[in-house]
Design goal:
The structure is a single chain. The protein is of the alpha+beta class. It has one domain: 3-Layer(aba) Sandwich (NADH Oxidase). Helices cover about 35% and strands about 10% of the residues. It is built from 8 helices and 4 strands. The radius of gyration is 19 Å and the shape is globular. The two termini are about 30 Å apart. The relative contact order is 0.22. It holds the Pfam family Nitroreductase. Belongs to the nitroreductase family. Keywords: Oxidoreductase. This is Nitroreductase.
Length: about 220
């Protein structure tokens, strides 16, 4: 499949047919994904391949508190878990939220728990007066490569992060060392339907010339 086609059709896949994702295909997906860039090429990524149903159910339970808050904030007209906007929903309301009994972590053929060695990161924005983002450059290209490689093999998945809010529970469950962080849980499986065309903002709406408030970046084709 052409790279541009893979990039334009890799959707967030949450529904799966139940068809198996064999180990040899998964190994090929990870073999291609591992060429993602990382800071200093230190490659601090680590993947835990989880197929055991009981373990996956526990991972789902780890994500429930974050999902409850997410749903409560949506209902309250908020942008969930936004670092600039404090949660305006009280704990009692959040706790009362009913979480749907469905999860891609359950229905996918496999769940990948992607971790990163914090000793390998360069968080150059760690002293700024905002939430740190830059260190993610050393792990999320790898996570996205997994999804691109899966799409190329006819499979799909989605980046989930709810369980990361309960990282200590996840670490204890999976025996993850203290100096690692949980970056994402990625369920993978054969999609019920594979989108062939995604909708995104045009380039002129996301790129400007020379400054943030510069002219939209676009080419005059006249």
């Amino acid at each position: 499949m052409e790279l541009s086609t893979v990039m334009r059709t890799t959707a967030a896949v949450r529904e799966y047919t139940g068809d198996p994702l064999p180990d040899d295909v998964l190994e090929r997906i990870l073999d291609n994904a591992r060429f993602a860039p990382s800071g200093g090429n230190r490659q601090g990524n680590r993947v835990i391949v989880v197929r055991d149903p009981a373990t996956r159910e526990e991972l789902i339970r780890c994500g429930i508190p974050a999902v409850k808050r997410y749903i409560a904030q949506i209902h309250n007209g908020e942008n969930p878990w936004n670092p600039l906007q404090p949660c305006g929903v009280d704990e009692q309301t959040i706790e009362a939220v009913q979480v749907p009994d469905t999860s891609p972590l359950r229905s996918a053929d496999v769940v990948l728990v992607v971790c990163v060695d914090l000793r390998m990161l360069a968080a150059m924005d760690q002293h700024l007066d905002r939430i740190a983002l830059v260190a993610g450059a050393s792990i999320y290209p790898f996570v996205w490569n997994i999804l691109l490689a899966a799409r190329d093999e006819g499979y799909g998945g989605v980046i989930t992060t709810a369980a990361a809010a309960e990282e200590p529970r996840v670490k204890e469950l999976l025996g993850i060392p203290e100096h690692y962080a949980v970056a994402a849980l990625v369920p993978l499986g054969k999609p019920v339907r594979q989108l062939t065309r995604l909708t995104r903002k045009p380039v002129r709406e996301i790129a400007t010339r020379e400054r943030f408030d510069g002219e939209p970046f676009e080419v005059d084709v006249r």
